[in-house]
Amino acid sequence: MAKYGVIFDMDGVLVDSYRAHFESWNRMLRPRGLEMTEQQFADTFGWTSREIIPHFWPDSVREADIATMDAEKEAAYRDVIAEDFPEMDGAGELLASLHAAGAKLAVGSSGPPENVEAVLKFLPHAELFAATTNGREVERGKPDPQVFLLCASKLSLAPERCAVVEDAPSGIEAARRAGMAAIAITGTAPREKLAEAGADLVVDSLRELTAERIFALIDTRASA
User: Fold this and answer.
1) 42 burial class (0-12, 13-18, 19+ CB within 10 angstroms)?
2) The pLDDT value given to residue 2
3) Which long-range contacts (CB under 8 A, 24 or more apart) does 121-128 make?
4) pLDDT at 1 over 60
5) Phi/psi of residue 157, each to 5°?
6) What span, in angstroms and rounded, lies between the C-alpha atoms of 23 and 80?
7) d(C-alpha 43, C-alpha 144), whole Å
8) Spatial distance between the Cα atoms of 129 and 76, rounded to a whole number of angstroms
9) Do 142 and 174 contact (CB within 8 A), yes or no?
10) Which residues does the annotation mark as catalytic?
11) What does the H/E/C string look like for the chain?
């Protein structure tokens, strides 16, 4: 049986999707006379769309329209990444090395299943994932740990035998609340914000990670 699980957030970790998501929000909003600022976008990275829309536009959007807006935004995102898929540097190679070392791999994303499917269609070695969890499978978005706990359950591993690779402070907090080792990659948020959220390790590139380094981190946290 596998002793270790590694759960990857998708956006900003496996796919460099910051610009694609920001553009897709405004493709959906502008015809409605609304706009998302980059600060609003950064502040809610890791939230689900259905949480973001009523948070920023409670007086402009009817609750009955949220599902339609959510679907339009996510469809726009898939259009953007299909035009030029932005794989995160080193993502495919890290997946292959972890699998070869015996880790069980999962995706824990706040996005809808269609987005997860679209990314895995283009990502090298995506067939190595043993499980995926998307935003429609959970009731609460990050920083709630539900998405990562569900991943661990699907991998048949205890949470303390898992590490999470995340790019957002809310995701790091979710990993810590799940009882998992939390690895942060800079880009979406600065190093100090990720450290403040409780990251056990902060890196600037996936190429800084190895199976040995991740497994040692899991062992250290599990024995603490």
Assistant:
1) middle
2) 67
3) 122/81, 122/85, 122/87, 123/14, 123/15, 123/85, 123/87, 123/91, 123/92, 124/87, 124/91, 124/92, 124/93, 124/95, 124/96, 125/92, 125/95, 125/96, 125/99, 126/95, 128/95, 128/96, 128/99
4) no
5) -125, 150
6) 8
7) 16
8) 25
9) yes
10) 9, 11
11) CCCCEEEECCECCCECCHHHHHHHHHHHHHHHCCCCCHHHHHHCCCCCHHHHHHHHCCCCCCHHHHHHHHHHHHHHHHHHHHHCCCECCCHHHHHHHHHHCCCEEEEECCCCHHHHHHHHHHCCCHHHCCEEECHHHCCCCCCCCHHHHHHHHHHCCCHHHEEEEECCHHHHHHHHHCCCEEEEECCCCCHHHHHHCCCCEEECCHHHCCHHHHHHHHHHHHHC
- pLDDT tens for residues 158-213? 999 999 999 999 999 999 999 999 999 999 899 999 999 999 999 999 999 999 99
Q: What is the mean pLDDT of residues 55-84?
A: 92
Average pLDDT over residues 25-51: 90
Question: How many other CB atoms sit within 10 Å of the CB of residue 75?
Answer: 16
Residues whose CB falls within 8 Å of the CB of residue 162, separated by 6 or more in sequence, listed in order: 4, 5, 6, 7, 148, 151, 152, 155, 178, 180, 181, 218
User: What digits encode the pLDDT tens for the residues 80-100?
Assistant: 999 889 999 999 999 999 999
Burial group, residue 113, by CB count within 10 angstroms (0-12, 13-18, 19+):
middle
